[in-house]
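Deviations from the work plan: none for this task. Representative record:
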Amino acid sequence: MTKETIIETERLTMGYGSFVLQKEMNFKINAHDIFIIMGGSGCGKSSLLRVLTGLVSPLKGNVYIKGVNFTTASPEEKKEIMKKCGVLYQSGALFSSMTLAENIALPLQQYTDYSPKTIDEIVSLKLALVGLSGFETFYPSEISGGMKKRAGLARALALDPDIVYFDEPSAGLDPISSKLLDDLMKNINQTLGTTLVVVTHELDSLLDIGTNGIYLDADSKTIIANGSPKELLKNPPNQIVYEFLTRGKQKNVK
Amino acid sequence: MDITYQEQRGCLTVVLSGNLLHIDSQFNKEELFRFARTNQVKNIVICQQNMDEWDSSLVVILFQLMKIAQDRGISIDITAMPDGLQKLLFLSLTVDRHPIKSKHNKSDFLEKVGTWGINTISSIKRGFLFLGSCFHSLGRFFTGCAIFRSVDLWRILDDCGPKAILIVSLISFMVGLILAFVGAIQLKTFGAQIFVASLVTIGMIRIMGAIMVGIIMAGRTGASYAATIGTMQVNEELDALKTMGIPVTDFLILPRVVALILTMPLLVLLADFAGMLGGGFVGTLMLEIPPEEYWKYAWKAFDLTSFLVGIFHGIVFGFVISLSGCYFGIHCGRNADSVGVATTNAVVWAIVWMIVLTGIITFFCEVFDI
């Protein structure tokens, strides 16, 4: 049975001005996958995420989200598509002047006609989902880094998105908080069927949660591996990917 | 979307079908909840027929039904629901969803006054400590022991000197123009319009030039100091300086204070002449005073002591603006909001202190007949 494709790129080239970061990228992300964008520092992982979320336009090529060309879509169409996408930024990006409840309620107030009571219910449900039940009245400055990320995830999930993008979710977290976040991501993927697109170079994390992925190479400026991280570790397609997945171990890969 | 329900021999059956997205406003859930609370309902069964997509609005309705069943001690069957939905409902019921009591309770009047008093005292203490450390740094600067990068001083000098020339010139020219206009209306009635030149010259060189430059620089440079240092606080750059053993006052405040103290008198000088030029513009074009006559009267009114008092105001204002900007920047909180608050406070307090110090300087000038 073939899986439904939710995101597809076609000859995607990205960069800044005349500087090309990655070129001619063709890949597909299936629905309900936890898709990992791997690669060394500076290869363009976060830039790819910015292209996929519409923050930056690609130099060439197209991104299709649920069959719609996101690159050439009108601002209104893009807004409609982005309503079904959530993003968790590296720092959580919570609004510091709002409580956690107000942060999560914001997209619901903007994009739905739910009653205030229903919004309150959904907010506390989302907070419960990320293990922050009871922290509704706290401000971002009053909680830890890991909690900020979880609260950011609750906000990303507010509109029941089909896709959630994560930019370095484990960055700056201790191993236990990092594991908790990984478990939470798997739980959300399994419970809600949400597709997760994760940019990370945390080996433990990507091997634990990833069901599919790509490896971006900074030297050749293109995708040099495609598949689940576990599979790539078992059958490395090249030396670069093997070294990346084994923290620099040497082996002759044919 | 379709949600139907019926009661049969004490069993309330709720049937869900179709697309169940955003159902909050399309379905009268209160009626269903009222019915579920009646005594005739002995158990609840949730069924589905070709149920398509669903979202959090359905979860909220089912959660309420489960809570009603729990409160009434009757059973509810949700086994026909999709797996993910069942897990979410289970999670909703098992976690304690009563928010922790807000730490931001409303305080009573006395508490507010007390808090204000304590904050004011600690602010004054903090202010004096800050002032002390700044004077200490200035002392180190004059003895050549201060730790700062000269490249920073040049960059800041460039920012608050040459880059401010255009705006200072324009505003001061306009102020001179307005002074001349306002004065001309009254002086014309006595046929004494020639004294517009004296009015503008004395007004600009004694105080107006310095005040205008002070206000411009408080809004332009003072705010920028507070925002820059405040953002550094948010990014933990100040902590990094402290842990490296580099005094923050030397490294960040000193170049800014020195730069403004050096540039303010020059900007006041520029503002004085731009204002006189604005007055001359009105005098020659509107009042038809010959240019040479206007400048003769202007120079006649030019008093070196008044001019130096104006320049002295400039130096004092430069000190006040830079200290205010740096103080609020350094004591900024660690979030984006605090940077905004710091910037506003820096400008407001710089202007307040400029006016207060103008009053004090004017008083002493009167006492010592300057």
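Residues 121 and 194 of chain A are 21 Å apart (CA to CA).
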